[in-house]
Design brief:
Length: about 200
């Protein structure tokens, strides 16, 4: 029997007048894989003339299983900028965390330690900013991120995330099996364009 979690469609993030190109590399099986935009046609931001520049990008949400397929998360990346085009608020949003027990999927209620390292890379691979965010929760949704420096032109937001926990005995209990089998890890890349500071 294939274990498939239920998806809460009311909490989907949507792109507002902006399309992102997304690449997803998972450390486990991928539930839904977004189709990346062609490399020859970078995304174009909604931009307003003058100082009041705004940027909004929200990647499609997609889910990833743990190696043992008993834990599952669904996440997306959001980039929001306003003003000078020098910084943007970058968020990694896990909008659903579930675990499988007794032939049924449940929204997480156990401790989960989540880490996300967010890197802002220029078109030539230069790192403009890199920060690691951590949060512990007992729920089914978390948001990690903050204000980050962004370059002009096309740049990449690379998120490497790791969720540990989401089972009744974590962190003090001993899970049968090998360490990390219930961890959910992924790496995703979002391509964004900052037209205010085109090189």
């Amino acid at each position: 029997m294939v274990k498939t979690p239920t998806i809460n469609t009311s909490s989907l993030l949507r792109a507002v007048s902006f399309a992102c190109a997304v690449t997803l590399t998972a450390g486990a099986a991928v539930v839904a894989s977004p189709t990346p935009a062609a490399a020859s046609s970078p995304s174009v931001c909604a931009s307003h003339p003058g100082y009041l520049w705004t940027l909004h990008c929200a990647s499609p949400r997609s889910g990833v299983y743990s190696p043992d397929r008993w834990q599952w998360t669904s996440a997306s990346v959001a980039v929001d900028g306003r003003g000078s085009g020098l910084t943007a608020d970058v968020s990694y949003v896990i909008d659903d965390m579930q675990y499988y027990w007794g032939l049924k999927w449940y929204r997480n209620k156990y401790r989960a330690d989540t880490t996300a390292t967010i890197t802002i890379e220029g078109a030539n691979g230069t790192v403009h900013d890199k920060k690691t965010f951590k949060v512990t929760s007992n729920g089914s949704a978390v948001t990690l991120g903050g204000k980050m420096n962004i370059p002009g032109g096309t740049f990449r937001v690379v998120v490497e995330s790791h969720v540990r926990g989401m089972w009744w005995g974590y962190p003090n209990g001993r899970h049968k099996g090998y360490p990390g089998e219930t961890d959910v890890s992924e790496k995703r890349t979002v391509i964004v364009h900052n037209p205010l500071r085109d090189p």
